[in-house]
């Protein structure tokens, strides 16, 4: 095992009168418990196959991309440190170079990650041409030989990694929806590709204005990882709450009510938005539907380090991968 993990992660049925009234069964796939205090959730599932590949190819350095609030960035920093690799994080927004670090970036630096802040246009250009030899040449001239992970870590290996969680859900069939939040689409792509016939995958976008873009990303991952596309998934674009960095009052109210009822603190940027969407959508689902919501990660940042509270960029800008930059 490259990174410690307790698998399979727990699968728990939630008792909730609100959902029972709508004839919906909700189960939580507790991937947040894969490695409490360590690299957990979908970051574990996505990074491990890539770490194996990097080590097998003799790499000593990881390089990746993200916004200032990216969970992927600090997960890569921690994973590199745990595997004895060095790491570089290319961060969107050159204006952040001299700003006080938020929790996420401070954590990355604490794990030895070197941060390079680039302006938004250069960042976008680099990512759009990441697989071009010219881009790779520029990266290697600046940073030396390194294993490059795309924004959010979503490549074919990562999607294959998240596909593994479906093997931990026996007995799926036509009444099943497996639900997860969608940042860059790697997690949803892996789940959809691995589902048995009849079951469907349901993604909840956490980015604003990402309709079309995220669907294209998932299809692209399917083509590169499985050489085909799949018809068994869809993405809801109704519960991003105004953008990745935004946590509107209705969302935080939902999250604290959920926390109080079920004694479970939920990560706000992804998991709360997904569950909010599940609860709002439940009355419209066929009675008898069983929803398995993947708790893709634990709450990370201390409550005080939220936009507007801690140091950091303007809400709705930083941290949002995809077209909403
Ligand atoms: C990174 C992250 C996601 C996004 O996953 P994608 O594969 O990029 O769509 C979802 N949930 C949590 C908790 C995350 O940290």
What labels would you give this structure?
single chain; 325 residues; globular; 4-stranded parallel sheet; Rossmann fold; alpha/beta
Q: Rough shape?
A: globular
Largest sheet: 6 strands, mixed
Mean pLDDT: 92
- Report the uncertain regions: 303-325
Listing every helix as H and every strand as E from the N terminus to the C terminus, the arrangement reads EHEHEHEHEHHEHEHEHEHHE
Oligomer: single chain
Task: Please count the helical segments.
Answer: 11
What's the level 1 CATH class of the largest domain?
Alpha Beta
Task: Describe this protein's structure.
- This protein has 325 residues and is of the alpha/beta class.
- The chain has two domains: 177 residues, Rossmann fold; 113 residues, 3-Layer(aba) Sandwich (Rossmann fold), CATH 3.40.50.
- 37% of the residues lie in helices and 16% in strands.
- Helix 7 crosses helix 8.
- The longest helix has 16 residues.
- The radius of gyration is 19 Å and the shape is globular.
- It starts with 10 loop residues before the first strand and ends in a 31-residue tail after the last strand.
- The C terminus is likely disordered.
- The site of pyridoxal-5'-phosphate has 19 residues, from helix 2, helix 3, strand 7, helix 8 and helix 11.
- GO terms for molecular function: D-cysteine desulfhydrase activity.
- Belongs to the ACC deaminase/D-cysteine desulfhydrase family.
């Amino acid at each position: 095992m490259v990174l410690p993990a307790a698998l399979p992660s727990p699968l728990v049925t939630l008792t909730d009168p609100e959902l029972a009234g709508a004839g919906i069964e909700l189960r939580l796939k507790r991937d947040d418990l894969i490695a409490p205090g360590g690299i957990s959730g979908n970051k574990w599932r996505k990074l491990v196959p890539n770490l194996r590949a990097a080590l097998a190819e003799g790499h000593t350095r990881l390089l990746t991309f993200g916004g200032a609030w990216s969970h992927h960035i600090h997960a890569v920093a921690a994973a590199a440190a745990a595997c004895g690799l060095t790491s570089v994080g290319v961060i969107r927004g050159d204006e952040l170079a001299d700003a006080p670090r938020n929790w996420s970036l401070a954590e990355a630096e604490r794990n030895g990650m070197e941060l390079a802040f680039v302006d938004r246009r250069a960042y976008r250009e680099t990512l759009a041409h990441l697989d071009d030899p010219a881009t790779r040449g520029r990266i290697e001239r600046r940073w030396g030989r390194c294993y490059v992970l795309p924004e959010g870590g979503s490549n074919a290996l990562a999607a294959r990694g998240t596909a593994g969680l479906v093997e931990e859900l026996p007995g799926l069939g036509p009444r099943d929806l497996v639900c997860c939040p969608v940042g860059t689409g790697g997690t949803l792509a892996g789940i959809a590709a691995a589902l048995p016939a009849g079951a469907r995958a349901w993604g909840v976008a956490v980015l604003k204005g990402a309709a079309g873009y995220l669907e294209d990303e998932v299809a692209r991952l399917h083509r590169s990882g499985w050489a085909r596309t799949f018809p068994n998934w869809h993405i809801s674009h109704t519960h991003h709450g105004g953008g990745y960095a935004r946590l509107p009052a209705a969302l935080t109210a939902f999250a604290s009510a959920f926390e109080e009822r079920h004694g479970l603190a939920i990560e706000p940027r992804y998991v709360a938005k997904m569950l909010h969407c599940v609860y709002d959508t439940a009355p419209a689902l066929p009675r008898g539907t069983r929803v398995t919501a993947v708790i893709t990660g634990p709450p990370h940042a201390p409550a005080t380090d939220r936009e507007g509270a801690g140091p950091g960029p303007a809400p709705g800008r930083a941290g949002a991968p995809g077209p909403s930059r």
